Give the backbone structure.
Amino acid sequence: MLKIALPLGLAFIMFSLGLGLRVADFRRVLARPGVIGLGLLAQTVLLPLTAFATATALALPAEAAVGLMILAACPGGVTAGMVTRLARGDTALSISLTALTSLLAFVTVPLIVGASMAHFLAADTSVRLPVGQAVGGLFLITLLPVGLGLWLGERGTLSATTTATVHRVATAVFALIVVFTFTSQWPAMAQHAPQVGPAAILLNLATMTTGAALGLAVRLPADGRVALAMECGMQNSALGITLAVSLLAAPALAVPSVIYAFLMNVTAFAVIAARRLRVRAADAPPA
């Protein structure tokens, strides 16, 4: 049931995000390919370099270092779009980057994971992602529900009340997914947090700061900077766990992904709270 419920929950979240978007939002994103390029640079190049520097500087054990690199090689998580919306960010930019980094992962993941295993473990291991399964998952969980929501939103098929209800239910589903992640992975997090936790939180904060700084450098508005920060910080940790456990048959390599899954949600909720307070203050009438 969990294998069915979790993808359905993620697909429903993406459907709700699509309802709140319009074709014009994606046209605006595509009109600035340089911003897309910056997001891809941050996600596929700067993030792995930051993870490598973090693992080296903190002298992580070899397995923990490789696990951190596996996490850094993964694309942005599906929930990055939801977190971006809750933080009043540019949801269209976040969804676009998630889709593109997921497609690039077929090239970047084998290169990064293979190189990190050769460096830290002196292991000659080739990594191959199941292309058909991954593309199918990207289509069914991300592109199809977003496209359906976008189509219904453009047509005005659903009333404002129904759309608001869908958004509230999607937020509740997202909260349930976060709570499930915490409770199911808590034993592993509690055991390994003292060793891996500092590296995971440092990586998360550094990558979120990098995304926001790149947005500031090209004078993106606040919602664009939030999208870049969230896209860099919210990794597809589920893919990291799958790579370690299923493809590499080394569960110990999954520990950084497990701990990062917890920490990235903590920092994301902090950003959401700060952004909501700032937007509320900006919208408040002058005294």
In short: The mean pLDDT is 85.
